[in-house]
């Protein structure tokens, strides 16, 4: 199944060489940031001797139209035509933004994703969601387009800082909670630092690919992947605006999963036992973040702008049980406030 | 056939009312410029009492990322969700740019085109090409996406200045030259000022829709629609950079059709008789533009950046006869220079 969706989990140099030989691109560009330039580009560079290297600055705060202009400019100056290829080598920011730029350059050229962080391997690289942030709204401008290939190799994870591994792990936890109770038991059975990623990543990618295949443009069931993200995104966006107080994506989603699991209990979907198991495990991995007073007022405008909403209704994904999500549940501001109070009191 | 492609040529108020009643949009925005605000919006306004009006400045020089930011901002401030509708009411600039903004807002919301110029009715509104200019490159950033509906009504043409009518007429001429020799005789049979647009527009739209249906993403045959546009676009872009010396799109394409017909003759495709007929008729409608010295050096860089090219090869659409185009013919800079010399000597 994964093969059909153009996702290849194997040794990167083998697969990339095979891919490039099977196509005849007029030019190749590689988009990197300073991290993937240093740690990841050397691994694939021998296959890309003539490629145009486009280096941007890392970080969600650079996932902007301004950076897109820089990328479009670089492609234009290197005289890329419609037969060119863009390779996005890096984390989710590079994949989302590089894919958006490739999909809109001369009305769309080929691109492949080589996700190099755990987060982007199990989440951003699969599903064709591309885009950039706009003002403080995450992924506000973008489109759906499947990459021509996604090449995943755990070799890239070896140079990743531990907090980045932990951030990506949040999406693996999420995939278990919404769709695979057995895998939830698997990942819990050892400390997360001991997990063998080359086993767990393919499983997690498989869950996501299956959900996306059923509903590519997020008309219904795909919204299940947003569990933890209604409140989590709001918190993440809020912290982006406070200098020096940044939360990694997975750290924010960890809070989102606990609070949205709490709402699931309040709504009568989730058992207290399941909620406790979820809260305890997630806290054991991520610890607890001290949320300042007034946070709820600060995050609500962002939550209201969430793309999943319709009108003034906040549409949330909740849990029926561990391993089973439920989509399109309208929740209220008061429920969000209560759930954050629950988190604070843990 | 037209019905299938969501193109409706009928009374605008009837069709728009029917369309809006058949859908349940959370919000509706209408994008206009100062011209369509004054002349076209009053016609549909009674049906759109609650719509958000987004007014931009007319002109190709405003088909930019900056204007897109303005439109995205307006949609965001009006809290448009994914169930919103954008109506593009105006010429090609509004259709291309408004369609691009709608297709990328929250990864894509519905939009309909109500083209109000002859040019946009017979060309831009059909075929799903969306985008904006980037630096001096026309439609350099964009994507392919079919509008949810195209509503065409000749009522809008009544307030159009004569030079705008003549500009749009160039695309009708082009459609005849590449695909319909009989229609070429029809349009030539009277002065263009006497043409009944409510008869000729549906025919011309039909030609374009048929070509697009065969090759939506311009992999091959659709390139036939670019006849006159390789050199014509270069000239148009060049004049955009000279204050006070603007050529309308059709005026530039008229030059492009004559010069590319000349190259068709030189290559042995087109007869001298056909070339003369084409040159004489087009000059009789558009007159002759005085091209300054050095024009060829100025337009070549733009022609080389044309999206239809591959590598350094300039890919051109030529004519085999009146009514029959031929695509993907590589031409040289020298041939372009010679063809411009032919035009100057006419």
Report on the structure:
The first copy, chain A, folds into two domains: 157 residues, Rossmann fold; 176 residues, Dehydroquinate synthase-like, alpha domain. The mean pLDDT of chain A is 93. Chain A has 346 residues and is α/β, with parallel strands linked by helices. In chain A, the strands form three sheets. The first copy, chain A, has a six-stranded parallel β-sheet, with helices on both faces. Chain A contains 14 helices and ten strands. In chain A, helix 6 runs parallel beside helix 7, helix 10 runs antiparallel to helix 11 and helix 11 crosses helix 14. The first copy, chain A, is globular. At the A-B interface, helix 4, strand 6 and strand 7 of A face helix 4, strand 6 and strand 7 of B.
Characterize this entry briefly.
The first copy, chain A, is α/β, with parallel strands linked by helices. Helix content of chain A is 48%, strand content 17%.
């Amino acid at each position: 199944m994964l093969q059909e969706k153009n996702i290849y989990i194997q040794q990167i140099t083998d697969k990339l060489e095979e891919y490039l030989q099977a196509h005849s691109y007029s030019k190749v560009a590689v988009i990197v940031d300073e991290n993937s330039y240093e740690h990841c580009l050397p691994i694939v560079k021998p296959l890309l001797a003539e490629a145009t290297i486009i280096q941007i600055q890392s970080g969600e705060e650079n996932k902007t139209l301004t950076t897109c202009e820089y990328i479009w400019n670089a492609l234009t100056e290197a005289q890329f035509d419609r037969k060119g290829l863009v390779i996005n080598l890096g984390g989710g920011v590079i994949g989302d933004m590089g894919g958006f730029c490739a999909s809109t350059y001369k009305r769309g050229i080929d691109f492949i994703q080589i996700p190099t962080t755990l987060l982007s391997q199990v989440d951003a690289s699969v599903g064709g969601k591309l885009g950039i942030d706009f003002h403080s709204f995450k992924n506000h401008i973008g489109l759906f387009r499947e990459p021509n290939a996604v090449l995943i190799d755990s070799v890239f994870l070896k140079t990743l800082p531990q907090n980045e591994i932990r951030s990506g792990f949040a999406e693996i936890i999420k995939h278990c909670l919404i769709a695979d109770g057995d895998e939830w038991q698997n990942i819990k059975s050892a400390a997360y630092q001991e997990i063998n990623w080359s086993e767990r990543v393919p499983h997690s990618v498989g869950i996501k690919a299956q959900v996306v295949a059923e509903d590519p443009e997020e008309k219904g069931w795909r919204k299940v992947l947003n569990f933890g993200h209604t409140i989590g995104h709001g918190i993440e966006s809020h912290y982006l605006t406070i200098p020096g107080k940044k939360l990694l994506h997975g750290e924010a989603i960890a809070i989102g999963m606990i609070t949205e699991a709490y709402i699931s209990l309040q709504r009568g979907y989730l058992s207290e036992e399941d909620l406790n198991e979820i809260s305890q495990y997630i806290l054991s991995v991520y610890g607890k973040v001290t949320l300042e007073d007034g946070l709820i007022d600060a995050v609500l405008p962002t939550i209201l702008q969430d793309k999943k909403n319709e009108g003034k209704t906040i549409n949330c994904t909740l849990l029926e049980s561990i391993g089973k999500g439920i989509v399109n549940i309208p929740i209220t501001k008061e429920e969000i406030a209560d759930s954050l109070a629950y988190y604070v009191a843990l």
